[in-house]
Fold Superoxide dismutase.
Amino acid sequence: MTPSSRRAVLAGLPALAAIALSRPAWAQAPAAAPSGPHSLPPLPYAPSANEPHIDAQTMEIHHGRHHQAYVTALNNALKDHGQLAALPLHELLAKLDEVPESIRTTVRNNAGGHANHSMFWPVMGGRGGMPSGELAEAVNRDLGGFDRMKTEFNAAGAGRFGSGWVFVTVARDGKLALTTRPNQDTPLMDGQRVLFGNDVWEHAYYLKYQNRRPEYLNAWWNVVNWDRVAERYAAAKAGTLGV
Ligand SMILES: [Fe+2]
């Protein structure tokens, strides 16, 4: 920060404090959050939008604290690495072997966390149901139909030991596949694209479901926004899908 920008920030402190006090606690970024190339995308609906299946407090903490923490840590790791900081997130994750070893694990965990959660929010906020059209045809063709996909997705999520994610990936030709990853790893690290996925870290469900991860996995389908997933499917086939 330059001296003049520091003065500007200091001069604005009373106003900033007033703004911060007027915002809900979950929406306040950590005080030490640095500016950087990556930022927290806004939640595309109210935190209560996924009630009763996912409670508002879980959404607030998950988005405003957990996702923000990944963004903050990623920006911190990249602050002296301008070329890496300039890469789109999916390209950074596909080039982890080019990231200096001193920051590689930090970038892997936090770029992965940022990418996974940036995918996660938009594919929720819906009313569940089933995919339609071309996407439904792909589910039938590649995953044995909606019911089988749901059963196998839930089993894969329940079987993911510890923390991680369960995903449906989409290839450029539209082919779908079911997979899981530990921690904040993502198929983007293998140059693949994610159609949709569910977070099976305890922070995603513990307030409401405690240790009942299978119950959370089953309930999650009630909030999937298939319109957004269909948009991701079209973008993947067009080669424009990022994270
Ligand atoms: Fe999460």
